[in-house]
Amino acid sequence: MVSSASEVKIRPIALKDLDTILSIDSKIRETGQTITYANITTGQIFTAEREAGKRRKTGSYYLDLVTGDTSTSLDLGFVAEVEGHVRGFIMGRLVTGKQATQSGQILIVGVHPDYQHRGIATRLVEALVEGFRSRGVKTVRFVIDQRDRGLINLAERMGFGAGHLIDFSRAL
User: Fold this and answer.
1) Is 89 helix (H, G, I), strand (E, B) or coil?
2) pLDDT digits (tens, 9 = 90+) for 50-84
3) Mean pLDDT over residues 128-138, rounded?
4) Could you give the count of Cα atoms lying within 13 Å of 142 in the half-sphere of its Cβ?
5) How far is CA 95 from CA 15, 136, 141, in A?
6) 97: CATH
7) Among 47, 48, 52, 81, which residue's Cβ finds the most Cβ atoms within 10 Å?
8) Domains identified in the chain, total number
């Protein structure tokens, strides 16, 4: 088991990591710790991307379906390795707003339950923020459920603050 974040290697997500990422996501859900991500899984992120591509009718969408191309999702994603094994992950995306400005959005972050509270999530967020910065992004958004104290504490420790938007919802 890792004793400090310094023993953690952060690297870009590779296609070979997907099964492990899905497994970590599943293990986190088994603990009941998924407040913010209770209604979205890593598998759904990949599926939603493919569905969006289908709606856009891009020429490569059909090839992506056949080959399982997840390059857009993987482009802004990182994993944390401990002793050569993936123990955490983060995925983000670029969002184009007014006047074609881009912001970064953290989609999901997860650390295997046995490796939580060791600085791994912090290192993953730092890597993704640097990935956004290298693309000229000036703002990063981290949407968190207000009941998720653990994730809120992480965000606040890393300099994130509450934005100006309020999410209203209505059950149907």
Assistant:
1) strand
2) 454 444 444 443 334 334 445 555 789 999 999 99
3) 94
4) 21
5) 23, 12, 10
6) 3.40.630.30
7) 81
8) 1
Three-state DSSP class for residue 33 = coil
| Inside any domain, residue 106 | yes
Q: Which of 120, 150, 115, 109 is nearest to 21 (CA)?
A: 109
Whole-angstrom Cα distance, residue 126 to residue 170? 34
- Show the tokens assigned to 61: 């969408």
**Residue 172 lies inside a defined structural domain of this protein:** no
Q: Which two tokens stand for residue 19?
A: 């099964």
Query: Does the pTM exceed 0.85?
Result: no
Q: What's the token pair of residue 57?
A: 């009718």
In angstroms, the CA 137 to CA 95 distance is 10
Question: At 154, is the secondary structure helix, strand, or coil?
Answer: helix
Q: Is 31 part of any domain?
A: yes
Which pairing describes strands 140-142 and 77-82: parallel, antiparallel, or unpaired?
unpaired
**What residue type is assigned to position 163 of the chain?**
G
Whether 165 is covered by a domain: the verdict is no
Q: Which domain holds residue 152?
A: 10-157
Cα-based distances in Å from 21 to 17, 101, 107, 164: 6, 31, 14, 32
- Looking at residue 1, its pLDDT comes to 46
Residue 40 has a pLDDT of 59
Which structure tokens are listed for 44?
Answer: 């759904």
